Amino acid sequence: MRYLLLYFKGMLMGAADLVPGVSGGTIALITGIYKELLESIDAVSLSSFNLLRKEGIAAVWKKINGPFLLAVFGGILSSILLLSRLLEWLMLNEPIGLWAFFFGLLVASIVYLIKTELRFDLPSILYLCLGTLISFVVTQLQGGQEEISLWYIFLSGFIGISAMILPGLSGAYILFVMGVYQTIISYLRQAQDLVFNFDQATFVLVGSGLVVFILGILTGLKVFSKFLTWLLERHPKQIMAVLIGLMIGALHKVWPWQHDVASTSTTVEKNIAVLPNTHQGDADQILKAILLMSIGFSLLFIMERIKTFQKK
Fold first, then answer.
1. Of 136, 107, 131, nearest to 256 (Cα)?
2. Structural domain tally of the chain?
């Protein structure tokens, strides 16, 4: 039962990582697997190969917390493969409903973490403000690349995964800022199409791009998880305050009602949060947005009750 729940938590992480503005690290944090995830990733090292020679696969599998990683990353991969098309469609056709759901989930996670993790003293409040400021500044960035090389795709994967495991900083949004988000989503869609309609030229293009991107992800995942694990071991309260601040600073990017602002970039438009009554069109979606916000908000506490029940 535990690994089935871990699989579904991984699916939620994968779905969140696909959406610019939402972080899979946020989902890991609010579902109670964040620290174990970082520690398990950090356990995968070159020393595992020495252990493999000495004690065999079973010892290595136990050392790296294999069943946990398999369940979580299996869920993440399944979600990305199954939901990439759906989320792309929702972002184009039902953006207010989609963002409303994630906004409710993010607000609930902030409320929950402030209640359970934050100290109400001056240092913690200062760290909270620091995290909020960093997140807000990062989410104001714009950028884009007209021609994307393999080295840039590798760098995007390295930086993107670093943000993906940070609550509040969206890896997908970082990819969007770097101008590779649409390219990676397109590669994923084309890779699925190749299963039924193989084309050698497309296979070489898509395969090389995805392999390099995955190498960047694996490198960034290992480097950044080790750094975060080190910080959480030595300064847990301060880092938790910063992480909560990162989530607060990203709220405006998940707000359902956004206005496009003209940009000098050829590939990226800047959005600003506005009130529903000043939004261009879609005024009739307010009730639907409120309903989906409520569902997203409630989902966190449902997951928390399941986690509490599981411990009993």
1. 107
2. 1
